[in-house]
Amino acid sequence: MRRPIEVRNAHFPGRAPIDAYGNGGFRFAGMSHRGSLLLLPSGIYGWEKEEGVPLTSADFDRVIAEAGDIEVILVGTGINIRPLSADVKTAFRSRSISSDPMSTGAAVRTYNIMLAEERNVAAALIAV
Taking a C-beta distance cutoff of 8 angstroms, is the pair 71, 92 a contact? Predict the structure, then answer.
């Protein structure tokens, strides 16, 4: 008898550079993921965000929970750069996290460099 497919929350328990992006997802650590990602000190998580949907401070609750280990968060907003709302910027600033919105491609490249430099970096990447 076949067992039903088990759907789990996407989580990779470590830090890894992004090897590729596009076609609605990302490749990292020998795996692929469809959809957006949060890359945090505690690991890489699936993130239920799509391009064009406004970002709120609640979208970054997991980031805020790890604020003590994050100096900079790179926010890949999709194909085009979109500014962060005042409430999102305030949530980061009040926890001494510098935020930088940019296109997802630029965020991936910058994240990989900062990760290689062993910086306290996080990234929120909207799939393109």
Answer: no
